[in-house]
């Protein structure tokens, strides 16, 4: 590969570890680190508050980031791009604001079984509070969705459908465009969790015609603590604020307040302007490398990993056997060996992977596994790294005392 | 680094545990849960006055938690409750990296787990059985 890109990422360039836990959080390129630092060194003031030049500069940095996000996901207007802390907060915003005000007793909320807890618990909460019926959309055992099941599960009673575009366990891409169409036909809105999709593929919210789309900066090479909620303007306008306080009002009296215009209505308190600057830089970085190149590299290493794992006796890959249905995420089990022991062996060989339930317990129990080990790749990972990972996996059973 | 934590003593106790079976007529039954991964064990003890006459465990978990529980049972069966508590205390001390070489030696097979002291992420696995034992005995006093 073009090794130069690895040099863009200080932690990758340091060769300190084989980092293949990218689905948990990506590494950041120097330009993102610089952008955050540049904000604090050269433009730091409370954005949106002061009228002096520094505050105006800070506001510009923050609002320019919003422009970058808007163009990146092809939103219609800046009013549709709300900065949050992360995907979890974005989805909670929709659940508390839209969910609690629009869902009524007896309505149905459809949630897929493959959701991260972040896109499941908020809907359990909203359904419980509003006495709505929570219906789960089950995938097939290979992780695919049967569109006939989707059609029949979403009914005229369905108010909202919550689904991830890419599962953080299976890595398979869900056809959210078609699901949005089905939801809309029934008068429901769709909330899409884009945490694992946008790091790997271009997202056009208009083309997908989704109502809400959430993602985290830190999985997209950006800083931690900055995330995005896209929402259709006509929906956001009708929604009550999620958090109240500073920055989100036009005027306040002792009896109440007139809320600020979108998107600020949903951004209470001092915002993470440095994080937004970092996210801006991250998006520009992704655009400069290009999704085409990133996907090509990710597919190459994922293909090597999936094929390699399938070749090792007693190793099972969760989900599809085809690399192009994994979006860089390869979750696996080793017979008789607990995932924490698998990861321990890998860690001792210098490979950073994740073991556990990956915040998707309902999916794992549906698939009949307790916990798993997950490797997740980005375009900066190399074939050599995959080979070291595979070599380590090969030794796991033996090192745990199983002599074939 | 952790490369040699999976030594023969540990893997043997994990693959062929002596005390992993269900005990129908236990006097004390207590569940221990590892909050960091959700793994659990059920510890079962039979008492004869002050003495732990017999014991077993069931449950799922990583090699470290399973082997540690199995080794523990081998050490405490036939011992008095307060002797078992002393061993538990010593084990915790070893896992925290605070035990002397003599103290570690006195832990016999359980000393095979001494390197966990350098693996903070796995401490909870190693102490799961011992923690549950301490709670079970404390409850019974
Ligand atoms: C599919 C999916 N949704 C949501 C999240 C939550 O993201 P965050 O922790 O940034 O809120 C994650 C990541 O952990 C994820 O993989």
Shape of chain A: globular
Kindly state the percentage of residues in helix of chain A.
40-55%
Number-wise, the strands of chain A total 15
How many β-strands of chain B, per DSSP? 3
Report the span from N to C terminus of chain A: 37 Å
Specify the CATH homologous superfamily of the largest domain in chain A.
Answer: Type I PLP-dependent aspartate aminotransferase-like (Major domain)
Structural class of chain A: alpha/beta
What integer is the average pLDDT of chain B? 92
Protein described:
The complex is a heterodimer of chains A (404) and B (141). Chain A is α/β, with parallel strands linked by helices and 404 residues long. Chain A has 2 domains: 255 residues, 3-Layer(aba) Sandwich (Aspartate Aminotransferase, domain 2), CATH 3.40.640.10; 110 residues, Aspartate Aminotransferase, domain 1, CATH 3.90.1150.10. Chain A is built from 15 helices and 15 strands. In chain A, the strands form 4 sheets. Chain A has a 7-stranded mixed β-sheet with strand order 2-8-7-6-5-3-4, with helices on both faces. Chain A has a 4-stranded antiparallel β-sheet with strand order 11-12-15-14, with helices on one face. Chain A has a two-stranded parallel ribbon with strand order 1-13. The mean pLDDT of chain A is 96. Chain B is α+β, with helices and mostly antiparallel strands and 141 residues long. Chain B has a single domain, classed as Alpha-Beta Complex (Sufe protein. Chain: A). Chain B has a 3-stranded antiparallel β-sheet, covered by helices on one side. In chain B, helix 1 crosses helix 2 and helix 3 runs antiparallel to helix 5. The radius of gyration of chain B is 14 Å and the shape is globular. The chains are: A alpha/beta (404), B alpha+beta (141). At the A-B interface, helix 13 of A face helix 1 of B. The structure holds pyridoxal-5'-phosphate. Pyridoxal-5'-phosphate (PLP) binds next to helix 5 of chain A.
């Amino acid at each position: 590969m073009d090794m130069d890109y690895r040099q863009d990422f200080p932690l990758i360039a340091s060769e300190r570890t084989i980092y293949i836990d990218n689905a948990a959080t990506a590494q950041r390129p120097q330009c993102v680190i610089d952008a955050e630092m540049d904000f604090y060194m050269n433009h730091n003031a409370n954005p949106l508050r002061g009228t002096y030049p520094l505050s105006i500069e800070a506001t510009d940095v923050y609002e320019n980031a919003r422009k970058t996000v808007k163009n990146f996901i092809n939103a219609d207007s800046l009013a549709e791009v709300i900065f949050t802390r992360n995907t979890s907060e974005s989805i909670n915003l929709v659940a508390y604001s839209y969910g609690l005000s629009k869902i009524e007793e007896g309505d149905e909320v459809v949630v897929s079984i493959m959701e991260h807890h972040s896109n499941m618990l908020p809907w359990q909460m909203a359904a419980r509070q509003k006495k709505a019926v929570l219906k789960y959309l089950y995938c097939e055992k290979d992780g695919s969705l049967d569109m006939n099941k989707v059609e029949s599960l979403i009914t005229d009673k369905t108010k909202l459908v919550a689904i991830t575009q890419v599962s953080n366990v299976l890595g398979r891409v869900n056809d959210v465009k078609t699901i949005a169409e089905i939801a809309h036909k029934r008068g429901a809105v769709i909330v899409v969790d884009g945490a694992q999709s946008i790091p790997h593929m271009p997202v056009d919210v208009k083309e997908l015609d989704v109502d809400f789309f959430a993602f985290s900066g830190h999985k997209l090479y950006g800083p931690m603590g900055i995330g995005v909620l896209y929402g259709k303007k006509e929906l956001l306008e009708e929604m009550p604020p999620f958090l109240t306080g500073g920055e989100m009002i036009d005027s306040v009296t002792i009896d109440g307040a007139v809320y600020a215009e979108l998107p600020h209505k949903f951004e209470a308190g001092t915002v993470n302007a440095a994080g937004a600057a970092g996210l801006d830089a991250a998006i520009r970085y992704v655009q400069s490398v290009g999704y085409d190149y990133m996907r090509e590299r990710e597919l190459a290493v994922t293909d090597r990993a999936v094929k390699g794992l399938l070749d090792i006796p007693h190793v099972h890959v969760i989900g599809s056997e085809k690399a192009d249905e994994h979006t860089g995420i390869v979750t696996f089990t080793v017979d008789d060996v607990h995932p924490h022991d698998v990861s321990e062996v890998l860690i001792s060989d210098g490979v950073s992977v994740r073991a556990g339930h990956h915040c998707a317990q309902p999916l794992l129990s549906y698939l009949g596994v307790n916990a798993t080990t997950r490797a997740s790749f980005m375009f900066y990972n190399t074939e050599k790294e995959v080979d070291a990972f595979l070599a380590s996996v090969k030794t796991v059973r033996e090192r745990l005392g199983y002599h074939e | 680094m952790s490369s040699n934590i999976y030594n023969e003593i540990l893997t043997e106790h994990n693959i062929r545990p002596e005390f992993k079976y269900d005990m129908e007529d236990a006097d004390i039954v207590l569940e221990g849960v590892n909050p960091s991964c959700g793994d659990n064990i059920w510890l079962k003890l039979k008492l004869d006055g002050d003495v732990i006459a017999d014991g077993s465990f069931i449950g799922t978990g990583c090699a470290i938690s399973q082997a540690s529980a199995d080794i523990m049972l081998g050490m405490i069966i036939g011992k008095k409750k307060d002797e078992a508590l002393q061993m538990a205390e010593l084990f915790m001390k070893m896992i925290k990296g605070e035990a002397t070489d003599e103290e570690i030696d006195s832990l016999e097979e359980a000393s095979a787990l001494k390197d966990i002291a350098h693996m903070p992420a796995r401490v909870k696995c190693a102490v799961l059985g011992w923690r549950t034992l301490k709670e079970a005995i404390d409850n019974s006093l």
